[in-house]
Structures are given as C-alpha cells and as structure tokens.
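User: Hey, my collaborator sent me this sequence without any context and asked if I could get a structure. I don't really work with proteins. Can you help?
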Amino acid sequence: MAQKKNIPPLKVAARPLPPLQNDAQVNKIIYFAVAIIVTLVCFADAFKGGFTNWDDVQYVTENNLIKSLSWDNIKTIFSTLSVMGNYHPLAVLSLAIDFHFNKLSPHGFHTTSIIIHLLNVGLVFIFIQLLTKTPLLAFIVALLFGIHPMHVESVAWVSERKDVLYVFFYLASLISYLFYIKKDRNILFLIFSFVLFGCSLLSKAQAVTLPVALILVDYYLIGKIELKKVLEKIPFFILAIVMGWIAVMAQKETGAIKEIPNNTLFERMLFAGYSFMTYTIKLIYPGSLSAYYPYPDKPYSLLYYIAPVVAIGLVAWAARYYKNRALMFGVGFYVLNIFLLLQLLPVGGAMMAERYSYLCSIGLFFIAGKAAVDALENKKLAAYKNIFIAVMVCYGVFLAYGTYERNKIWNNSGSLWSNVIKQYKRVPIAYNNLGSFYQKQQKLDTALMYFNEAINLKSSFPEARTNRSDIFRVKGDYVRAIADCDSAIATDKNYTEAYMNRGIAYCFVGKYDAALSDFTFVVSKKAGEASLYCNRGNLYDMKGKIDSAFYDYSEAIKLDPEYADAYFSRGRTYVKMQKYKEAIDDLNKAIELNTTSNNVYIYRSQAYMATGNYSAAMQDITTAQKLGIQVNEEYINNLKKYLGTSGK
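Assistant: No problem. I've predicted the 3D structure and written it out in structure-token form, which is a compact way to encode the shape of the chain:
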C-alpha cells in the first residue's frame, strides 16, 4: 500500500485589511467645520455694514497712513508712535492692505475682520484640542467664542481690527508653544511662539499677558509651576515690558490715560469690581448690550459696593480648588486677560467695553465647556443626557440669534447710537455722534436737536459745540457759529476742529486775517492732513496770494496723491499763473479722480482756449452748461468766433 504523503497546508499570504475609518479624526473635522460655519452664518449681516462715526473716520476714512503701501509709508506706519492713542502698526498695516484693494468700500474691511474672526475660531479649537485632547470640549469653547454677542463689537466695528488681529497672533503663539512642549521642546517652536507674540503686541498692546498665559499652560499640563520653565520665558517678559512701556507713552501722547474727574482710588476699585461682575454675567447672559458703558452718577447704587466683594469671593472660592487644573486654567486665563482692562488706571471715558471680553472669555468658556463634557460623560447623569443636550442647543441658538441681531445694531452710526441711548439716557457722546449721523444726511434740524442735548448733558463738550457750529454756519448764523467755536477752544485750546470751523466762519464774515491765523494753527498741529493745506490754500487764493496758495495745494497733493479737489485748486491756480499746460494736466487729473467741483470744466476750457484748442474749450463749456453752471455769453461768443476763424 502506497504511503500517504503529508501535504503541507496551503499558505495564503496575509493581506492587510483596509484601515478602519478614524472616527475620532472625522469628529474633529466635523466639530471644526460646524464651529466655523455657524459663526459665519451668525455674522452674515456684518458683511453689509458700513463705517461708523466712532473712530472709523480717524482709523480709515480720513487716515492718510492707510492710503499707500509704498515702503516709505510702511516705514512711517511702524515709526508712528500713536494712532488714536495706540501703537499698533500691524493693525494699521492691515487696514492699509484693505484700502489698497477696496479703497473706501466698507464691505472689504468688514470681510477681512470676519475672516480673521473665523480664523480665530479655528485657532481656539486647535488650541483647546492640543491642550486637552478633547474634541468636544474644543468644539464647545470655539463655538461659544465664535457666536457670543459680546464679540460683535470686536468683529463688526472696523476700528477694532486690532482686537481680532492681536488675538489671532496670541492664539497662534499659544499653539506654537504647545507644539514646543509636545515636540520634545524643539527650540524652533519656542522661537516661532516668540515671533508670533511680537506680532500680537504690534497689533495691540493688550497682548502683554501672554507670558503669564504660557505659565498657565504649563500648570495645566503638569500641575505645577517649575522655575526652569518660568526662566525660559524671560525674553517674553522683557518684550512685554518694553511694548507695555511704549503703549503707555502712546496713550500719554494723546492724553488717553487720565484720572476720571472726582474719582478716588476707592471709587475706581468699586468700578473695577462692578465691571468684573458685569463682564462675567454678560458672558453668561448677554442682555442689554451697549457700545458705550458710562461711569455712574453719584450717589452710587448698592450694587457698586457689593460687586467687588462678590468678585473677590468668587476668585477666592475658585482658588480653594487649586488642584483642579481645568478650573484653575479657566479662571486664571479669564482673570489674567480682564484685570488690566478694569479701568483701575482709567483710559478714555467709558467704564467698560464689550471688546475687552474678546480674549478673556475663552477662560470662562473653557470652564463651561469642561463642565458640560463632564456632565455628558457622567454615567450617573445618563438619564438626563438628552435633556442636557437640548438645553445646550437652545442656549447656543439664543447666543447665535443675539449675535445675528447685534450685527444689525453695528450696521451704521444711527442704529448704533440710538441703541446706546436706549440703554443709557445720559451719554453725551451718544447724542453728539447721533447728531453727526443726521448732519451727514443733511437732516440739520434733527442733528441740531441731538447736539443741543449733548451740550445740555455736558456744557464743556468741545466736539458737540464744534459740530453745532457747523449747523449754525450752514444756517447763516455766523455769530453763534463763532461763539460755539470760542467755547470749544476755551475748554480745549488744542482742539483743532474748532479752530478750523471758526476759521471757515471768519471767512464768511470777511475776517480773513483771523481765519488765516486759525488755519495756520491747525496746519501746525496736524501737518500730515492734506485737506488742511487745501483749505488754507483756498483762503490764500481768496486773499490773492497765489504763490502761497500754490504751495499749499502742492503740499496737499504730496500728502494725498489722489486728492481730487487739490488737483482742481492747483489747476485753477495754474490758470491764474498762465501756466496752461500744467493747468490742463492738473484739471484732467481732478476730473479723473471725480472732483467735487463742476467748475473744473470752466477752468479747463479757459486753459484750452489759451493754448488754441478751441474745440476742446467749447466742449468743456457745453459740459459745464449741462451741469447747470452759468457761463458768460461773451466768452462763448469769443469761442465761436475763434472756432469760425481757425476751424478747430
């Protein structure tokens, strides 16, 4: 019998199974995308917003610093110590980039701010995810940050570009520091973090808190503060101190840092405690929001005395749980980034501002998000999980709706200041700015009513008196116009707008020498503004001082190469100087840039006629007549005669 052969089993090469889909990674992507998309929807109305008359004029519409991206102008941006009381060259540069692409279209400026806010939402998500490795927590914090109504001020107000920009670099610096820790302390990430910190400081000095925030990150990760880790942050602290000092100098240059009249240190401590509690409450329930929160009138309500005690009590209570690293990180981040903004050293006339909540809110949202995640993962509360999720969704919808509606308030100066007056009846700046809004719309009687109310609330209000003087001047009441300017100057001897308005009023009553004195004073104080030279040039022209007028118009054009009316005025001066070729060049440029004066066609016609181009001269006269300008019949007849003779 044949012996059976043992046949070895068939070996089949093992084929790796296709990798399972990484659900955790997919969840991260979904969370990230939802936070961004929901935030974008909430800010959809902000794209349609315009500029407001609260700082946007100084930061954008009349800011010559943003009107060029030449290297010389960029150097000027970085060498200018104070723009509206702040040293924030990167923020100004970002506005200059917007102007380069959008000119004065507010849509472009708002689009940039919204994009940066969306990027910040993404950075918050990345930061919390890297810190905690908990995607749901990162999602909750990022979403709350993105859709909270108190953040509308930072995003929808063009002047607050510095807010969204400094937080962008601040968060990026924190993230780079986390990579430094997680990549075996690769020094390149620490250097990158330092550079980003510098960019944050150059966007807004409020970023000085970052070195301490880095220590909070260390504490959260390892549960203690090590001297070695503190020492490695010395360069960060040095840079913070230097930039902090520069910020103080910038504030002092414009007088923004000042003692609020009649407020003692004790009173400022009361206000600080009240503001701290108000920020905390409004971050939980954002009701009765306002663009302006005035200091209270005496006698102060009991709340101002209770609030500091409650605030200190809350912080002390949280300190008892110092071993709870999540709680300590959240409280620390919140207190760290709000403390310097509590007006213990007063800056400006408002007690608090919603924009100050933009960064510090991450700390409170972190605590809330951690509590929510813990509750959802608590098996003892499993039966209530769906109810808890429903409550969270409702709260999110409440915040989202509030943000969407709040963007409408920031749509224009009228809605903005009307809302402030709705919240606070005795805010002079609100009445003044609302008056300015109606004045621009040529609703002079309505504007006058609001200016009067502003002055009734604060008689020594230079801006309101100067604005009211405009109304009086337009109505032909030059005596009252000059009197209002006199009162404004008596209150603030350096208030240039009052000198300018008074100078214009002096012109109408024939006091040209007094007007020239006022205009010259303004030019000496604000030599970088093209319109001031143009105004003084017009006065020189009226006085027959053609050479002086020509110099001022040329200076205006040098400062603003796209200043249409300056080209018109200099072109008119060239005609008087019988330099007709130069006149035609300037008047062509004025028309190209849409000058506000239709007389440009009259002067160009004269220049064409003087150079023998009679057909072009006649064409300009015809255009002038179509625009409603009366033309001397003798001039037209002479042109026709020349045309008949020359055939031109």
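In plain terms: The first helix runs from residue 23 to 42. You can pass these tokens on to your collaborator as they are.
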